Amino acid sequence: MQPPLAAFLEQVLATAQAGLTYSKDPFDIGRFEALRAATVALIASQSELDPAAIGDWIALDSGYPTPKLDVRALILDEAGQILLVQERSDGAWTLPGGWCDVGDSPAGAVVREVAEETGLACRAVQLLALFDKLRHPHPPQLPHAHKAFFLCEVTGGQLLGETDETQGAGYFPIDALPPLSHHRVVASQLRTLHDHVRQGRRDTLFD
C-alpha cells in the first residue's frame, strides 16, 4: 500500500473501532462492522494477505484505538559498533526489540527482547528517543505504532548466532550497515541515535 492509502485505512479502522466501542444503536454498530469489513477487503486486495487473517488481527484490538508501542535496544561495543539481529521473517537486520507485552514496562520489555533475540543480559540505561513511526521513512504498515529506543548496556550472557526469532547477530559500524528490516528500523534513525550517544547527550529525542 502507498503511504496515503495506508494512512487513510488506518484512520478508517480507528473510526470503526471507536464506533463499535461507544455505539449503542444496533444499526450504527452494523454500519461500523460493515465499514471494518470493507476495509479488510480493500487491504486484502492490495496485499497477499488472507482476508480472514486480516480480520482476526484487527479483531484482537478493542476499546478506544491507540498506537501500539515497539521497543528497540541500541547496544554499542567498545568501538562504537551497533548490535543488530537478522530477522527470520524477512532475512534483514534490525535492532533487537519488538512489541511491548501486556504487563511489561517499556524498559522491561526491551531487556526481555534482547535476551530472547541475542542471548545477552542487559539493562536499559537511557531512553534515547520516542518516535512516531508515521513521521519516519518506514514502509506503510498497520497498526499505527510509536517506537521507543533505549540505550542498553550488556551485563552478561553470551551472544548467540541464532535464536527462535533470529538467524544471526553481530556488531556493525554505522557506515557499513547490512540490509535493514525497514518496517522495524531505518538507517536515518540508527545514525541519529548513534550520534546522540557518541555526543554524550542525555536528552530524549521525540517527534
Structure description:
By secondary structure, the chain is an alpha/beta fold. It contains five helices and eight strands; from the N terminus they run αααββββαβββαβ. The strands form two sheets. Strands 4-1-6-5-8 form a five-stranded mixed sheet, with helices on both faces. Strands 3-2-7 form a three-stranded antiparallel sheet, with no helix packed on it. It is elongated. The mean pLDDT is 92.
Helix/strand layout:
Elements: H1 3-22, H2 26-45, H3 51-59, E1 68-74, E2 82-87, E3 93-94, E4 97-99, H4 106-118, E5 120-132, E6 145-157, E7 166-172, H5 187-198, E8 205-206
Characteristics of this structure?
5 helices, alpha/beta, 207 residues, 36% helix, three-stranded antiparallel sheet, elongated
Order of helices and strands: HHHEEEEHEEEHE
Q: What radius of gyration results from the CA coordinates?
A: 19 Å
Distance between the termini: 24 Å
Count of helical stretches: 5
Enumerate the strands of the largest sheet in spatial order, edge to edge or round the barrel.
4-1-6-5-8
Question: How many strands, which pairing sense, and closed or not: the largest β-sheet?
Answer: 5 strands, mixed
- The percent of residues in helical segments reads 25-40%
Mean pLDDT: 92
Portion in beta strands: 25-35%
The stretches of 5 or more residues where confidence is low (pLDDT under 50) are: none
Rough outline: elongated
Structural class: alpha/beta
Number of strands: 8
